[in-house]
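EI: anyone free to look at a 118-residue chain?
SC: sure, send it
EI:
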Amino acid sequence: MTTQLQILIRFVCALVFIFPVTANANEKARYSIKNSIELSGVELNVVSVALEDFRKSKFDLKNYRIFIIRQKDQYEIIFLPNLRPGEKSSFGGGTELGDELHYFVSKNGVIIKMEYAR
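SC: here you go
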């Protein structure tokens, strides 16, 4: 074998075997981007389950902010309506744009209960 061929083989082996390990080690750092939101697959699933039920309501999603609260055996997904300019918040969580809704969803994606804010 020529020296150039041996160098090329070593380089290719390094790319195949070393680079994936380096890429995996740096994956978390690479995706820790300022202003990013990280959700696990389970979290995305429970949000999608709550969202599917929310869309059955008369409320417009563009008027809401969504909060996810991780609990021991479930997640609480809160749909919090925005305030219109000049509108003051009121008891019960509702605004002119809609009601505040709380979904309690199991980790396997089953809605345990849904409550309006009080």
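EI: The chain has two domains: 1-35, 41-116.
SC: 👍
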